[in-house]
Amino acid sequence: MDIQQIFKNNLKWVAEKLSIDETYFKKLSEGQSPKILYIGCSDSRVSAEELMGVAPGEVFVHRNIANMVPNNDLNSHSVISYAVNHLEVEHIVVCGHYNCGGIKAAMIQQDFGILNPWLRSIRDVYRLHQDDLQMITGEEEKYNRLVELNVQEQCINVIKTADVQKAILKRNVTIHGWVFDIHSGQLIDLKIDFHKILEKIMEIYRIH
Question: What amino acid positions are annotated as catalytic residues?
Answer without folding.
Answer: 41, 43, 45, 97, 100
